[in-house]
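The material for today's practical consists of a large collection of protein records. Getting from the letters to the C-alpha cells is the skill we practise here. To make this concrete, we reproduce a full record directly below:
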Amino acid sequence: MPRIEGLVTEGDLRELVGNLGVAAREPESEGWQQVIAKGNDDVSYRVWCDKPMEGPPRYLSITTYERCSTELLRDFYMDNEYRMEWDSTVIKHEQLQSDENSGIEIGRTIKKFPLLTPREYILAWRVWEGNEKSFYCLVKECEHPLAPKQRKFVRVQLLRSGWCIRKIPGRDACQITVLHHEDNGMNIEMAKLAFAKGIWNYICKMNSALRRYPQRHISSISILTMQRLIKKFPEALETVVDANDQPQGATVAPSHFERTSSRQLPVKKSSRATIASGLLLIGSIVCLSRGRSNLGAQLAMAFFLKKAFKKERGSSSEEQK
C-alpha cells in the first residue's frame, strides 16, 4: 500500500479554518452571491456562490438542524453505507485504505446522473474533533493504485470540500458550514441552474434521512473506522477559530479554496443557449425528483443533454485514449 499520511495535513486544516471564517461575517461583503435561503421547523439552509474567471463555481453553505447533536450530524455525514440507502445518486462506495497514525482514509465512490456517464470519485479525507464537541473534516481528490481508471466512468479530477459542525449556544440545534469546489465535467451553466432549483428538495430529503438515522441499528464500517481514526483538533488552531467568531478581521483565501470575486460581469449567453439550458434543467429535475418521465420528455431531454454535454464527452474521450 502507498504512504498516504501526507495527503491531508494540519496545514490543510489551517487553510480550511481560515476560509470557513468568511461565514462569521456577511458573505456578500466578501464577494459571494446568495443563491438560496430557505427553512422550515426542522432545518434552515443558506448558500452562496463565488464564480471564478475559469472553471466551476465554489459554494459556501450554512445548514442549521434543530433538535440535533453535533455527534449525530457528524456520523450522518460520514456514514457512506447509509448514504447509499437514501441518496439515489450514490450507487457504490468502498474504502481503499486508511492510516492509523494520521487518521486519513481513502475511498472510491460512484455517482450516477441522468443520461450521463457515471462519475467516479477517489477521495482522501480526515476528521478532527475540537472543543465543545465541534468537528472538522477536509476532503480532496487523489489517486490510488487500487482504483485504476475505467472507460465506463468519468474520473472527477477536482474536488475540494471541507466542513465544520458546531453546536448553537443556548439551543438544541447544531450547524454545519461547508465550503465545496468540484469539477465533475458537467456543463457549468446547467449545473448552476440545476443546483439553484434542486438543492432545497435535496436538503429536505437529507433532513428526512437524518431524522431516521437514530433508528438505524446497523454498525456502519464507515463510522466505526472514523471513530477509531478521528484526531484531536490542534490547540494552536483554537486561536484562529476564536478569531473567526469575531465579526471583524481579514480572511486569507489560500490555495485550496482560492476565490476570484464574483463581482466580475458574467459572459452573456445567447437567447437560444438560455432556452436550451432552461429546457435541460426542467428535464433533469423531472428525472431526478420523480424517477420517471414519458417517452417524449426522455427524448427531448436526451437531445438537450447531447447538446449541452457535447464538450464533456469530447473531454472524456481524450482521457480514455
